[in-house]
Amino acid sequence: MPVTRRHILTLAGVTTAAAALPGALAAEGITDTTPTKATLPFALTTPIHCGEVAIRVRHLDNMVAYYRAVLGLAELSSTKDGATLGVAGTPLLHLITTPDAKIEPVTSAGLYHVAYLMPNRAELARWLVHIAMTKVPVSGFADHNVSEAVYLMDPEGNGIEVYSDRPRENWQWNEGVVTMGSEPLDIDGILALADTKKDTFTAAPDLLRIGHMHLKVGDLQKGDAFYVAAAGLVHTRKGREDAAFLSSGGYHHHVAMNMWHSKGAGARRSGQTGLAWFSLAVSDHETLEAQRSRFEAAGFAPKAIADGRGFEVTDPWGTGLRLVPV
Question: Which of 6, 97, 105, 258 has the largest CB neighbor count within 10 A?
Answer without folding.
Answer: 258
